[in-house]
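Milestone M4 deliverable, item 7.
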Amino acid sequence: MQSPNHQITKSPNPTPRIAVYPGTFDPVTNGHLDLVDRALKLFDKVVVAIGINPVKESLFTLEERLEMVRETIGANGSVEITSFDGLLVDLADKHGACAILRGLRAVSDFDYELQRALM
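Output delivered:
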């Protein structure tokens, strides 16, 4: 019988559990940092993927955003920081990810993400 206070933990599976966390990170926020910290408790590796969107006007250049993320999150064996400009599914496949992380800022974000998940 499982305890009602059971916790999800990383799998001892020899295949690493990898999650991709996409975003513009323009700029990186405390919310981003919190999500990475939480994800590292569930996954062996988190790939922070900074998206390049030529249609979206950014406050900071890609290089500045990469540097901000490196300085605040820090790359180590458990966090990889990269950029991408293609399809997210291709990036997730390239890294062997089993999950894509998404942050929720408001209830409307949950509805939006639920509709995307049901596609």
